[in-house]
Write a structure and sequence with these properties.
Layout lengths: L5 H7 L14 H8 L4 H8 L1 H13 L7 H12 L8 H9 L3 H15 L4 H12 L50
Length: 180
Amino acid sequence: MVGLQLQEFLDLSPYYVDNSKTPGFNWERFQDKIDTISEVLFVLLVTEETSEFIKSLTQKYIQLSVRGLDIARIIRDVVLADIYIGDMPGQISSKLGVDQNVATEIARAIVSQLFAPVIEDIKKMQLQKFGKLPSSSTPQQPRQNFAPQNLGGQARPPQHIPGEELPETGGNIIDLRNKY
């Protein structure tokens, strides 16, 4: 580990954040889900770059400094389709205790920076589980401190799909939920 200490990497890793000693966490069920995801999604969950991204979020939003583990869990649950990607702002708000505007900013950063290289794989998982996708994706923002060089050799640049802008719902709130 170059940028993070080993324990910090493990704590902020969506893959390692929970283990067989975590109360209520079903490790066998988790491993069964891991076996069904693509290699690039698995690498996203275990790479140090993901842990560094989470650390940078907690540094940017100082009120989250002790909530990095919860961010790692939310990212893991979205990747494994345990949480609908459109519900991520609400999950962030309730689990991290931040207002909806901050939660939406954090969700946008996760989608546009962390998930960008693997968004098609995430969409596939979400579609299989929920039978729907958000009606739009977040607009691409400049990537900050995350270069997914280790995503199984399959890192893809962020792609903008015309017509998939997020509708503004007022103020800084962006509605990530499906409009079906």
